[in-house]
Design goal:
- The chain is of the alpha/beta class.
- It has one domain: Vaccinia Virus protein VP39 (Rossmann fold).
- About 40% of the residues lie in helices and about 20% in strands.
- A seven-stranded mixed β-sheet has the order 3-2-1-4-5-10-7.
- It starts with 12 loop residues before the first helix and ends with a strand.
């Protein structure tokens, strides 16, 4: 099942490379979350909204040949990349499924209680209606299984200080763009009620927000995003040449003086199926 609604950040080569850099920067945080959730050898795991599959490949290494990883996404180019990489790394435990995660019929593609654990990062925020995704999670997770979510609860904490006026405008335009396309960059606010209402039990919650100087890995990740996404804002009529000039001036200035980059507020939530 594929979707007629594209991933708002695109699925081209440049975005694939940016997602690779992004995963490497956040990899330690993801792996620490999997350890806290008890993911391990021999388990059956789902990667929902897997994109090009960078996390799915790490999960496949974690579960080993006795386990399995089913990776779901609506972008066939990304699934093809994952299959190619899994074959190149001799990871037959990885399988893929093209799936529209906000379609009501998505849950029917999976058997009930089919997995021991679910990983889902930065997916619900892009869905017009995340309720079918939540239904799928609850259907697929076996009793005692764990769900690990990384989602934003406050995207507009993204900031550069001192200064950062152009960065602030960029952040507000991104929020407007995603909301116009049906997304919710503060989606984690809705997760406790949605998942508890479906019978899941919240085990752990923590903030993964970071604050770094301009040379820090996550600060560079933010700067990378500013450069890669400004053309999409411009194409949507939300970002002008003058806006871009001011943004580039701030990016140059932050490398010449002491400055702090603050990430959007990302939260980790670990849930259990009773």
């Amino acid at each position: 099942m594929t979707s007629s609604v594209p991933y708002v950040l695109g699925t081209g080569t440049d975005e694939l490379k940016r997602l690779d850099r992004q995963h490497r920067i956040w990899r330690n945080d993801a792996q620490a979350s999997w350890a806290r959730a008890g993911f391990g050898p021999g388990q059956r795991l789902l990667d929902l909204g897997c994109g090009p599959g960078f996390a799915a490949l790490d999960l496949a290494e974690l579960v080993g040949p006795g386990g399995s990883v089913l990776a779901l996404d609506n972008a066939e180019p990304y699934l093809a990349h994952l299959r190619q990489q899994a074959n190149a790394r001799s990871l037959p435990q990885v399988t893929t499924l093209a799936c529209d995660l906000h379609a009501e019929a998505a849950s029917a593609l999976l058997e009930p209680d089919c997995c021991d654990g679910i990983w889902c990062r930065w997916v619900a925020m892009f869905l017009h209606d995340p309720q079918p995704l939540f239904d799928l999670m609850v259907r697929a997770l076996r009793p005692g299984g764990r769900l690990v979510l990384h989602e934003y609860i406050q995207w507009d904490t993204f900031a550069l200080v001192p200064g950062g006026e152009a960065v602030g405008r960029f952040v507000q335009r991104c929020i407007a763009h995603w909301q116009t396309n049906g997304g919710d960059p503060h989606i984690a606010r809705r997760l406790p009620a949605a998942l508890e209402g479906r019978g899941l039990r919240l085990l752990e919650a923590r903030s993964l927000q970071a604050c770094e100087p301009a040379s820090g890995a996550k600060a560079l990740w933010l700067q990378d995003f500013l450069r890669s996404y400004s053309p999409q804002l411009a194409a949507a009529g939300l970002w002008s040449a003058n806006d871009q000039h001011q943004l580039e001036h701030e990016l140059a200035r932050c490398r010449q003086q002491a400055s702090l980059w603050i990430t959007p507020t990302l939260v980790e939530l670990i849930w259990e199926q009773p």
